Amino acid sequence: MSERTVEKVLELEVRIERVWRAITDPAELARWFGDEAEIDLRPGGNAAMAWQEHGRYAMRIEEVEPPTRLVWSWVHEPGIAFEDAPTTRVEWTLTPREDGGTTLHLRETGFRTDLHRGQNDEGWDAELGELSELLSGS
């Protein structure tokens, strides 16, 4: 059985510090990823993303290496405590480019079904499109 994984790469024309802020600051996250964000940016810290139409998803921060790496796990279903549900792992890797831009690599693993993997694959396309739009205006 092949691993169910989502991988995305974005080439962004802004500095790595700006991208880092967009993926770690709650106010910035709420501008492109969900409607509300909570984040305790330290390993073991609790976090959550909420969408009016989808609900609130519990998260836990696993790794924080500013400004190049962020890892969190989050539940598959809204309104469920982190400890009470299966999770997937989202890894963000940021690499500065010589031209001053940033390469963003996102990898999500741990899907139990092809359906859930497919939903998140499409979801990341939409959300990362919004991130790209936000940062192109920076």
Please name the defining characteristics of this protein:
138 residues; Alpha-D-Glucose-1,6-Bisphosphate, Chain A, domain 4
Structural description of this entry:
This protein is of the alpha+beta class. It has helices spanning 16-24, 26-32, 114-136; strands spanning 5-12, 36-39, 46-51, 55-65, 69-75, 87-96, 102-109. The protein has a seven-stranded antiparallel β-sheet. Helix 1 (16-24) packs across helix 2 (26-32). The mean pLDDT is 95.
Summarize the entry for a quick read.
This protein has helices at about 15-25, 25-30, 115-135; strands at about 5-10, 35-40, 45-50, 55-65, 70-75, 85-95, 100-110.
**Helix/strand class:** alpha+beta
Order of helices and strands: EHHEEEEEEH
The CATH C-level name is: Alpha Beta
- Unreliable parts: none
Assign the CATH superfamily: START domain
Number of domains: 1
CATH architecture: 2-Layer Sandwich
Number of strands: 7
What overall geometry do the principal axes of the alpha carbons give?
A: globular
The percent of residues in helical segments reads 25-40%
Largest sheet: 7 strands, antiparallel
Strand order of the biggest β-sheet: 1-7-6-5-4-3-2
Per CATH, what is the topology? Alpha-D-Glucose-1,6-Bisphosphate, Chain A, domain 4
Total of DSSP H or I helical runs spanning 4+ residues: 3
Rg from Cα: 14 Å
In what range is the share of β-strand residues? 35-45%
- Give the distance, in angstroms, between the N- and C-terminal Cα atoms: 42 Å
Element layout with pairings:
Blueprint: E1 5-12, H1 16-24, H2 26-32, E2 36-39, E3 46-51, E4 55-65, E5 69-75, E6 87-96, E7 102-109, H3 114-136
Antiparallel strand pairs: 1-7, 2-3, 3-4, 4-5, 5-6, 6-7
